[in-house]
Design goal:
This protein is mostly helical. It has one domain. The chain is built from ten helices and no strands. Helix 2 runs antiparallel to helix 4 and helix 5 packs across helix 10. The radius of gyration is 19 Å and the shape is globular. The N and C termini lie far apart (55 Å).
Length: 264
């Protein structure tokens, strides 16, 4: 059986996703035109809705790649509709990452869709299914930063520029965190098919705690500093100044006072 066997309604884009996309478009327009009375609130709504869109695309990439790899059950589970409510772990996939953005300002990887691994044949296909989600974040980051690395910022309003920079920052942090070869993250799913049975058995008892260990390590000053140094280096390579990203994060927190040099 192939992707052609997937019913049409199982691939139809969900109205829920379209509604989120509409919020992103309207609030993006409000940021661009300075229509909103509070630019910070508009930036918050735009970045948050765009972040949820990227989370949906992340999970869709996993599911679509799994479908082509042999798991024809993903359609019946609603994973191909881009509906965030269809995920097995909606809290891990959507709610928790959004809360982390609001509280901590980093792109937290979401929980993976449930893939029937036994239907995926071949180690390369298994690895590709795991890699597809973070790659969606990478592509999203490239789109957000395109005006920067294409040197096409003329005419782009400062508030929109700040919002794009912060949104790209979230994508880069999510991709980098998710590609760590730690159990519970997609990076481990990439390398796991290539590990020996003995090694996998040794790692298995720690698998449920891998994600939480990574989060805890980010509170260690040395680890936190090294991580964000790497993120800032990647952002600079994409043409995004640190100050621009910082102003985006400050506007996003509209409930706090915005630094004077970030005011628009």
């Amino acid at each position: 059986m192939t992707t052609a066997t997937t019913r049409r309604h199982e691939r139809r884009i969900s109205p829920v996703f379209l509604a989120i996309l509409a919020v992103m478009a309207v609030t993006g327009w409000a940021v661009w035109t300075d229509f909103a009375a509070s630019p910070g609130l508009a930036v918050f709504l735009f970045v948050t809705s765009a972040w949820v869109v990227s989370l949906c695309l992340h999970e869709y990439a996993h599911a679509r790649t799994a479908l082509h790899g042999g798991d024809i059950t993903v359609g019946a589970k609603g994973y191909l509709t881009l509906n965030p409510l269809a995920y097995t772990h909606a809290v891990l996939s959507i709610v928790l990452p959004v809360l982390f953005v609001i509280m901590g300002g980093i792109g937290l990887p979401g929980g993976a869709v449930f893939i029937e691994q036994g239907r995926i044949k071949g180690r390369w296909k298994h690895s590709l299914v795991s890699a597809a989600g973070p790659l969606a974040n990478v592509l999203f980051a490239l789109v957000c930063t395109a005006p920067f690395w294409l040197d096409a910022l003329d005419g782009v309003p400062p508030a929109f520029r700040f919002a794009l920079a912060f949104l790209a920052f979230l994508q880069v942090t999510a991709a980098l965190l998710n590609l760590l070869p730690v159990p519970g993250l997609d990076g481990y799913g990439v390398v796991e098919p290539w590990l020996s049975y003995k090694v996998k058995r040794q790692i298995e008892p720690y698998a449920p705690y891998g994600f939480f260990i990574v989060i805890a390590l980010l509170f260690v000053p040395a680890v936190n500093g090294a991580f964000f140094d790497a993120i800032d280096a990647l952002m600079r390579s994409l043409g995004v100044p640190e100050a621009t990203r910082y102003c985006g994060s400050q506007l996003f927190r509209f409930w706090q006072e915005t630094p004077e040099f970030c005011q628009v």
